Structure formats: structure tokens, C-alpha cells
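Structure first, sequence second, as always.
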């Protein structure tokens, strides 16, 4: 019996799905849990086989189109966000993972599905291909929350995005096998070859042409640029798909990856739009696809699905990682962690639902069984790997991120100078709204992004999950603390330094303690003054050393006196840079790097003085 039959229209169903998906995502964010599980549970509970408050059958005709267009945008956004620099560094491991992984998963998955669930061989092979597809929507939150090492993070991210396409292509090949029994091995090889060639060439061409269009005078308006990017992605998807079925998935991924390599103005804004649209499509698709799942069939095959998942997790994944990491630069513990992480996500669910409908239409009765088994694998993998991620990290002693890496936010010209001072022994990245400063830093070879630090998307673009400490240096203490909360809550940054204006340090003392942040520079920071002096080129670098008999030894920076016109930017101790904050204690031999106004400081005046009750200084 359907609940709320008056809502059984495609429009109402879609809007309800959007509302449910949004509420589930907010709840998941609050619980710090991947939202995919809540999307699935909500869809199943509200769908035709649950409470039937979500009348997904009313939009069955549009479901094919929605899945295809949704997958196209999701994969395009994945290619646009793919870190190609790190992919090159870990390309050998990723390449072997996306070759050996699907082959081993298909072999073991097909054999177990045939033997345990009594599925015919053609559909069993299709099942193996579908569960070889990864889950970037699941693995990315895990990477961010767990703060995994850089190598593991990039291998998992690149594998999840690239294996989606490989698995999808193999799945469409095995769908043809299931629909046309007796197809020859030669035809299968030709199908794979044509799809890879068509998808790659069309994607490269589409990315190149789109970059040229976005750089032309025809698309200066922000709205036009956004619409042009969206329509081009769908157009390339359709073109590649019309040449070779499902080659469109590879084409949009290659298009996104090509576009990010081109010098496109304001590409961050495009990434922002695509990221938001991708997340909306992912969430709504999951709710609708889960609502379309027959719960009776799901329960019937629950034991088989759990057993197949256990075999895949214990045998298929470790074997794939063993072949992929043999002889690589990854440590044994890092390889073991990779072997323990293989969640499935929205692409697997979307393609499975699409193919299950195609099998039903062709008269194959095993479409529901196929869909039930894949969804069981998705649900258990999301739940299991999410719960396993932290204990496994602790057990294998996986280091999270790079403790010496620094992200400087909103410092303008002074932030650039601080970064250069710290960059002698650290990797330094920049996130700032000052396009002139960012452009200069990029030309100097730094990793710099122009964007709003209160938008988490820009943190993802700069790969903040790899950062060991964040320096927040905008002109507003309140603004700085909001950014510090984002770093603390969303990206779990170990060290956060915040520049504070006059008197704001005491006013916000409780929040500073709650966020476990430190006051940068150990003194009030006047953003406008220092950036104005830097812009007028009135500042010079000075270095002072703490002598063996200095009264500054063992004194905290909070307690010493730093005159106006003197700005310590870094302390060098035994060859390592230290970020100046209230709790830093001076040691003999320390080199204090300082920015200063030379005309404001008489030649005989010390640059840093000990506490007032002491006399000697440096």
C-alpha cells in the first residue's frame, strides 16, 4: 500500500529525493560518517519496497537518462580534481592496480557468484566487473578524516577515480556477453580496444577545445563559462557514447583531466560549480537507486552477498595490491593498508541499476539478483571500511600527512614572505583571494590557489588533507577563527596558527583553546599595516642570533618585547624552521628571521628585547 499517493509524480519524487539526500548528508556530516550509507538506507526505507513514501516508479522512464547524465558529470568532476602531479609520482602502482585489480576481482567475483548465488556465468562475469568499480565518494572522506600518508592518499584517490572507468568499460563488455551469448573472445578484445581509443581521443580533444573556448573572448561571463562547461561535458559524453557504447565515461574523465592541465582562467570557480553539482547528483542518484531496490530480493541474497564480500576482501583485494605494489616505493605497512581499503560507491550503484533494467527488458530474470548482490557489497564495504579505517591506520602505524608541510591562508604579500622564510626546509602551499600574490607565487614554483578559504572545495583543490600545519593570516580575527574551525573540524589539521588583531587574543581565548590553535607571531598582527609596507617596498629582511649569554634564552615569545615595526617570521634551530608563536622558547644559537622597517629602528636599538625586568637583549 503506497503512502501519500497524491505525491506520486516525477516532479514530487525528485524533489523529495533531493530533500531526503540533503538531510542525510547533513546528518552524516554531523556524525562524521560517509553519507553514502545514509542515502542508501533512506532510499530503501522510503522506496516502493519500504514505506513507499518515495514513488520512484513514477520516474522510471527518466531514470536511465538521469543515471547516464549524472555519471557523466561525476566522472568529469573526478577528472577535473585528479591530482596529476602525484599520479605521475605513484603512476606505476596505480597503473598496475587498475589493471590487475579488475581482472582479479572479476575472476574471483564471478566464480564465487556462480558457485554461491547460482548465477549464470555471463551474469556472474558482469557481476565481477561491476564490483571492480571503486568508490571515490567514499574513499575521499575517509582519506580526509584519517589523514593518511601522502602516497596512500594519492594512490587510493587515483585508483578510485580511474578504476571507475576501467570497471565500467569491462562491465559494458560483459553486458554484451550476457545479452548475446556465444560472442567470441576476439570481439570482446575489439570492444575494449575501441572503447579505450574512442574515449581517450574524444576526451583529449574535448578538453583541449573547451579550454580554448573558456580562454576566448566568447566566454568571459561567469554564467556562460559554467553553462558551457556543463553542456560540453554532456556533449562529449554523448559523442563518445554514440561512437562506442559507454566510451563516454572514459571520455568525460579524460576531458576533465585535460582541462585542469590547461591554463584556464578561474578554473577554481568551475571546479566549485562542478563539485556542488556532482555532490547533488551523487546524493539524489543514491536515494533514487536505493529506493528502486527490491528489499525482498536483498534479504533473500543477504547471506550470499556477505560471503562473497568476505572472499573479495580477504583474497581479491590483497592479491591485487600484492601485484601492484611489488617492487614499489611503498612500505609493507602502506601496502597492507591499501589491501584493507576497497569501498564501492555511486558509479557501481548507478551502472548496476542501469544494467539490471537492461537485463530485465531483455528477458533475463537475474537482473534483480545482480542488483541485490552488488548493493549488499556496496553497503557492507561502506560500513566495514569506514569502521576499519582508523583501527587499521593505528595498527599499521600509518603516518598522517606531512608534519612539516605548511598551508598559508590569506596573508597577502606578508604571507608570501613568511612562506619563503619557512620554505627552506618545508613544503609550503598558499590559499589566498589576492590573485596578484597567487600569480607571483605560482610563477616562483609554489603550489598556490586563488580562492575563498571558507569554502571547503578550495581546501580540497590544495589537498589540505596532506598538510601538517595551517597559518591563517587574514586581516580579521573573527575570519581567521572561522577558517581555523574549518581546518580543525573538516580536515583535522594537527597544528593551526592564527594571526590576531589587538585585544582579540583575550576576547577569543576560550575559542582559541577549544580549537587548539596558537597565536601566530606572539604579538598582535596588523594586516593592513604590514601589507601596505610590503607593497611600498619599505621592508627589509634581518637575521639575529641568540648568543650564548643572551637573556632571551628560555624566554617564551609571549613574554619578550617585540617593538613596533619588527615582525619575526621564522626561527631557525639546528637547520629546521620553527613557526613563531607564544609558546616558542628561545635557545642559544637560534637564528631569528625578521621583517622590519629600517627607518623606524635606530641602528643601535635591539630588535627583540627580553622581559621588562631584564636588561640585556639581542
Amino acid at each position: 500500500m503506497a503512502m501519500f499517493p497524491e505525491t506520486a509524480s516525477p516532479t514530487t519524487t525528485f524533489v523529495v529525493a533531493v530533500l531526503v539526500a540533503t538531510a542525510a548528508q547533513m546528518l552524516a556530516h554531523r556524525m562524521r560518517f560517509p553519507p553514502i550509507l545514509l542515502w542508501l538506507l533512506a532510499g530503501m526505507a522510503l522506496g516502493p519496497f519500504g514505506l513507499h513514501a518515495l514513488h520512484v516508479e513514477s520516474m522510471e522512464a527518466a531514470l536511465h537518462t538521469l543515471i547516464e547524465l549524472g555519471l557523466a558529470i561525476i566522472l568529469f568532476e573526478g577528472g577535473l580534481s585528479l591530482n596529476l602531479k602525484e599520479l605521475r609520482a605513484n603512476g606505476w602502482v596505480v597503473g598496475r592496480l587498475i589493471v590487475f585489480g579488475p581482472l582479479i576481482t572479476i575472476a574471483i567475483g564471478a566464480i564465487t557468484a556462480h558457485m554461491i548465488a547460482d548465477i549464470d556465468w555471463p551474469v556472474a562475469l558482469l557481476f565481477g566487473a561491476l564490483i571492480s568499480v571503486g568508490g571515490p565518494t567514499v574513499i575521499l572522506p575517509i582519506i580526509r578524516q584519517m589523514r593518511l600518508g601522502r602516497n596512500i592518499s594519492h594512490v587510493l584517490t587515483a585508483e578510485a577515480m580511474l578504476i571507475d572507468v576501467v570497471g565500467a568499460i569491462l562491465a559494458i563488455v560483459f553486458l554484451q556477453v550476457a545479452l548475446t551469448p556465444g560472442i567470441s573472445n576476439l570481439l570482446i578484445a575489439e570492444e575494449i580496444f575501441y572503447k579505450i581509443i574512442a574515449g581517450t581521443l574524444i576526451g583529449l580533444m574535448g578538453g583541449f577545445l573547451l579550454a580554448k573556448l573558456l580562454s576566448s573572448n566568447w566566454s568571459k561571463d561567469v554564467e556562460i563559462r559554467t553553462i558551457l562547461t556543463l553542456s560540453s561535458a554532456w556533449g562529449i559524453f554523448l559523442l563518445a557514447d554514440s561512437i562506442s557504447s559507454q566510451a563516454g565515461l572514459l571520455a568525460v574523465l579524460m576531458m576533465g583531466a585535460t582541462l585542469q592541465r590547461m591554463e584556464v582562467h578561474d578554473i577554481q570557480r568551475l571546479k566549485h560549480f562542478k563539485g556542488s553539482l556532482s555532490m547533488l547528483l551523487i546524493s539524489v542518484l543514491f536515494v533514487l537507486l536505493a529506493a528502486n531496490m527490491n528489499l525482498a530480493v536483498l534479504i533473500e541474497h543477504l547471506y550470499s552477498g556477505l560471503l562473497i564480500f568476505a572472499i573479495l576482501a580477504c583474497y581479491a583485494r590483497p592479491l591485487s595490491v600484492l601485484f601492484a605494489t611489488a617492487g614499489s616505493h611503498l612500505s609493507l605497512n602502506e601496502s597492507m593498508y591499501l589491501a584493507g581499503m576497497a569501498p564501492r560507491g555511486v558509479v557501481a550503484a548507478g551502472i548496476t541499476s542501469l544494467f539490471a533494467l537492461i537485463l530485465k527488458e531483455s528477458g533475463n530474470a537475474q537482473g534483480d539478483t545482480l542488483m541485490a548482490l552488488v548493493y549488499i557489497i556496496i553497503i557492507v564495504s561502506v560500513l566495514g571500511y569506514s569502521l576499519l579505517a582508523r583501527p587499521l591506520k593505528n595498527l599499521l602505524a600509518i603516518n598522517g600527512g606531512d608534519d612539516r608541510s605548511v598551508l598559508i591562508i590569506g596573508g597577502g604579500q606578508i604571507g608570501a614572505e613568511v612562506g619563503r622564510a619557512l620554505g627552506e626546509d618545508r613544503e609550503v602551499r598558499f590559499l589566498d583571494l589576492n590573485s596578484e600574490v597567487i600569480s607571483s607565487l605560482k610563477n616562483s614554483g609554489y603550489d598556490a590557489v586563488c580562492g575563498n578559504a571558507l569554502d571547503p572545495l578550495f581546501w580540497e583543490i590544495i589537498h589540505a588533507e596532506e598538510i601538517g600545519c595551517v597559518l591563517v593570516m587574514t586581516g580579521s580575527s573573527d575570519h581567521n577563527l572561522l577558517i581555523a574551525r574549518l581546518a580543525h573540524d573538516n580536515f583535522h589539521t594537527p597544528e593551526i596558527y592564527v594571526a590576531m588583531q589587538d585585544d582579540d587574543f583575550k576576547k577569543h581565548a576560550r575559542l582559541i583553546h577549544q580549537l587548539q590553535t596558537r597565536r601566530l607571531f606572539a604579538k598582535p598582527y596588523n594586516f593592513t599595516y604590514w601589507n601596505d609596507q610590503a607593497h611600498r617596498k619599505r621592508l627589509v629582511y634581518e637575521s639575529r642570533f641568540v648568543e650564548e649569554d643572551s637573556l632571551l634564552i628560555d624566554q617564551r615569545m609571549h613574554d619578550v618585547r617585540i617593538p613596533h615595526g619588527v615582525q619575526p617570521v621564522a626561527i631557525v634551530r639546528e637547520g629546521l624552521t620553527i613557526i613563531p608563536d607564544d609558546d616558542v622558547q628561545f635557545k642559544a644559537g637560534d637564528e631569528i628571521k625578521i621583517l622590519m622597517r629600517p627607518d623606524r629602528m635606530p641602528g643601535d636599538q635591539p630588535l627583540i628585547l627580553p622581559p621588562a625586568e631584564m636588561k640585556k637583549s639581542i
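Margin note: The CA atoms of residues 93 and 193 lie 22 Å apart.
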